[in-house]
Amino acid sequence: MLLSKSCEYAIQAVLTIARKSDGDYLPVRKIADETGISYHFLGKILQTLTKAGILNSYKGPNGGVALVRSAAETTLLDIVAAVDGLGFAQRCALGLPKCSDESQCALHEDWGKICKNMSQMLESRSILDLISFYK
Amino acid sequence: MLLSKSCEYAIQAVLTIARKSDGDYLPVRKIADETGISYHFLGKILQTLTKAGILNSYKGPNGGVALVRSAAETTLLDIVAAVDGLGFAQRCALGLPKCSDESQCALHEDWGKICKNMSQMLESRSILDLISFYK
DNA sequence: AGCATTTAAGACTCTTTTGTCTTAAATGTA
DNA sequence: TACATTTAAGACAAAAGAGTCTTAAATGCT
Fold it and tell me: In the beta sheet, which residues pair with residue A58?
C-alpha cells in the first residue's frame, strides 16, 4: 500500500480537525471518537504532526490540537512527509540498490512518472479541497 | 513502498532465471549467489511462484527452477499478483472503509488513474522486456 | 491551593514482515 | 542400494509496524 496506517490516520484526523474546529483547540478524544481511531495511538500520531509544525497543541481544559496554517495552506504532501517521509518517490520500483538517474533500471522512467503524479496529487490537494469535496 | 521486499526479490530472481538459464533448471543456490538474496528466504519466495504456476521446480541433481512460460509471456503483474496480490490497486488511498466507486473519497478519481497506470506498467512489461533493456 | 482536563512520553504487547535454521522428501548417478 | 544434490516445509528468531496502557506535565477553573 502507498501510505502507512499511521499516515492514513493522520490524514483522517487532520480532515476532522479542519471540519470540526471553529478556531478553538479540538481535543484528541473528540477526534478519536469521530474517526474511530484508537485514542492513544492517535495521540502519538498527532504528536508527530505537532513536532512537524502542522498542528499546534495546548494542554489543559479547552486544550487540544489545531491547524497551524489554514486548511487551504495545508496539503496532503505535508502530512505524508511528516509521517511517512518522502522516500516512496525516490525508491527504485524493483528495490535495486544500484538504480539511480545515471544507472537506471528498466522501470525507472515509467516509475518516475508515476511517482511524480503521486507527488503532484498529494501536493495539489489541500485539506480545504478535501473537506469541500463532501459538501 | 509499492512492492513488498519479498515481491522485489521475486522479480529480481525471475530476471536472473531468465538471464542465466539455457532451458535447464537453475538451482536456487545460484540465484541466491547471483542476486545476494538470502538462500533460504529466496527458497520460500520461489515456492510461492511455483505454486502460482509461474515457475517449474525439479528436485535432485541438475534440479532447480525454470520459467513455465517464456520470458516474453511472463509479466511483472503475474509476479506481483502471486506474491503481494493485487490489493494495491483496489485500496482507498486514504484508507477510508466506506470509499467505493459509488461513494468516492476526494482522491478516488486521481488515485484510480494512478493505480491504473501502475497496473498497466506492470502488465505491459514482460520479463523479456526487462532483460533486453540491459543489453 | 487543589482539582479536573488534556497533551506528552515512554514502556509494553501484538501482529506482520523479514530472515535463519533444521529436517524431510525427491531424484539422478555410481 | 547408497550417496550426493536439490527443492519442500516448518519451526524459530529478529525487526518493524500497529496498538494499548500508565504516568507525568501543563493549564484553566473554583
Answer: A64
Place of cell 501502475: B118
* Residue B135: per-residue pLDDT: 58
Nearest protein residue to the C1' atom of C27, measured from CA: B60
Structural domain boundaries, residue B50: 5-133
CATH number for the domain harbouring residue A64: 1.10.10.10
Residue B26 DSSP symbol: B
First-to-last CA distance in chain B?
A: 28
Q: What is the mean pLDDT of chain A?
A: 92
Residue B73's alpha-carbon distances to A131, B12, B15, B52, in angstroms, are 45, 17, 13, 15
Contact A114 B121 (CB under 8 A): yes
Question: How many domains are contained in chain B?
Answer: 1
- CB within 8 Å of chain A, chain B residues 72-101: 76, 87-88, 91, 93-96
Q: Tens digits of per-residue pLDDT, A56-78?
A: 999 999 999 999 999 999 999 99
Which residue is associated with the grid cell 539455457?
B22
The rounded distance, in Å, linking the Cα atoms of A105 and B100 is 34
* DSSP bridge partners of B39: none
For residue B3, which of A10, A101, A111 has the smallest C-alpha distance?
A111
Give the DSSP letter string of B74-125. Answer: -BHHHHHHHHT-SGGGTS-TT--TT-SSSS--TTHHHHHHHHHHHHHHHHH-
Cell of B38: 538470502
